[in-house]
Amino acid sequence: MLEAGARHPADALRYSRSTPNARVNASLKPSVPRTPVLTAVSDLSPRRIHEASDAPRARILLVDDTPSNLLALEAILEPLGQQVVSVRSGDEALKALLLDEYACVLMDVQMPGLDGLETARLVRTRERTKHLPILFVTALSREAAYVTRGYEYGAVDYLLKPVDPDILRAKVSVFVELYLRGEKLRQQALELAERRRVEEELQRATELEQQLVGIVGHDIRTPLAAILTTANAQLSRELLPDAQRKAFERVARGGERIQRIVDQLLDFTRARVGGGIPVVPGAGDLNELCRKLVDELRAAKPERSILCDFARDSLPGVWDLDRLAQVVANLLDNALKYSPRDTPVRLRTYEQGADTVYLEVQNAGAPIPAHLLPTLFQPFRRGDGADQRESLGLGLYIARSIVEAHGGTLRVESTPDVGTIFSLCLPRQALVETRAHSACAGVSEPMTA
């Protein structure tokens, strides 16, 4: 209890229970109304609550049947900035320990009903609170028997009144720190377990994708090849009736479309699961590759104009030309789809220094909507046109993956003034192992309109 003229919070613990009518020093009264027992938290000032709000906090349980003692302990522990829960009996202490986790317990020994020693013994019988630190704060004599008995019942320390506030805070702060460190370790363990669970799920998903690739690569391609071979053989016959020719042409077109979809799915899975699309570099001429692709498109779409602007007649390098043909064909095909029929598509190549070459595909027309630019190169992103219903939206994703496998970059600029320009930067020799020394590595990401 507190003496009426007590000058220090510890003075509240100086006197025995023989002075039940002692008044509480007004300076120790909390500034906020006290909350009910079992949920009572030390009445921190708004400033301290603000300071402690961002940091993790531990709960400290105070057990004493004398309100003035509880108030004094709260005042002593208030600077620690932790949550202090005060209860007035052993029964209430056991209930509180069922509801929440605590860093430590400060408990009076002499209490009516369930005293402190018996309460400590019951706390030790529960697995959850078996190792909970208990500090006895009591006015009992210093006889060794009492101290020994307290330790036998599970106390980690035994403090006799009057209690030095600094010593009490120091002891409690040690248990608070240990508790918070333990909570941090437990949280890290949970996060690690969750991360492992996610990794295992991703591994299972990867294995499933690989199995699907095997199905697509073998069980679909094999019968598809037979269908295309049969259709092409029939189309090669000179005396084939017109109705049958049209039917076999539809079969061939459908088979070729399925073949393209299968190839895209295989490339997509290689890019996502297999560590990137594999490339096999060899000596070749990028300009010669572009001429062949343009000639094929001009023959397929004679109504469209494709203009070539080559800074040099020959642009030699070491690349996987078959893979680069996929990239250039995709860019040209997209440019033809998304530009007005009366406007040309422009293909330009040039070099910068001895080690870097560039290829640009430009088309006129409305710019790509700004909301599509950030995800343009992501898989399964399709344009807004009606003819895009037959597309998987994998073309640009695969194109960028192929370019990056060479150590290059692929970006886009789309504005009303210049139209849409896809810019491909390639090192003269494909950097299959790393992009670390590629001159294209510093090229900016896709720009917005």
UniProtKB/TrEMBL annotation:
<feature type="domain" description="Response regulatory">
    <location>
        <begin position="59"/>
        <end position="176"/>
    </location>
</feature>
<keyword id="KW-0808">Transferase</keyword>
<dbReference type="Pfam" id="PF00512">
    <property type="entry name" value="HisKA"/>
</dbReference>
<keyword id="KW-0597">Phosphoprotein</keyword>
<feature type="region of interest" description="Disordered">
    <location>
        <begin position="1"/>
        <end position="29"/>
    </location>
</feature>
<feature type="domain" description="Histidine kinase">
    <location>
        <begin position="215"/>
        <end position="430"/>
    </location>
</feature>
<dbReference type="GO" id="GO:0000155">
    <property type="term" value="F:phosphorelay sensor kinase activity"/>
</dbReference>
<dbReference type="InterPro" id="IPR004358">
    <property type="entry name" value="Sig_transdc_His_kin-like_C"/>
</dbReference>
<dbReference type="InterPro" id="IPR005467">
    <property type="entry name" value="His_kinase_dom"/>
</dbReference>
<dbReference type="InterPro" id="IPR036097">
    <property type="entry name" value="HisK_dim/P_sf"/>
</dbReference>
<keyword id="KW-0418">Kinase</keyword>
<feature type="modified residue" description="4-aspartylphosphate">
    <location>
        <position position="108"/>
    </location>
</feature>
<dbReference type="Pfam" id="PF02518">
    <property type="entry name" value="HATPase_c"/>
</dbReference>
<dbReference type="Pfam" id="PF00072">
    <property type="entry name" value="Response_reg"/>
</dbReference>
<dbReference type="InterPro" id="IPR011006">
    <property type="entry name" value="CheY-like_superfamily"/>
</dbReference>
<dbReference type="InterPro" id="IPR036890">
    <property type="entry name" value="HATPase_C_sf"/>
</dbReference>
<protein>
    <recommendedName>
        <fullName>histidine kinase</fullName>
        <ecNumber>2.7.13.3</ecNumber>
    </recommendedName>
</protein>
<dbReference type="InterPro" id="IPR001789">
    <property type="entry name" value="Sig_transdc_resp-reg_receiver"/>
</dbReference>
<dbReference type="InterPro" id="IPR003661">
    <property type="entry name" value="HisK_dim/P_dom"/>
</dbReference>
<feature type="compositionally biased region" description="Basic and acidic residues">
    <location>
        <begin position="1"/>
        <end position="11"/>
    </location>
</feature>
<dbReference type="InterPro" id="IPR003594">
    <property type="entry name" value="HATPase_dom"/>
</dbReference>
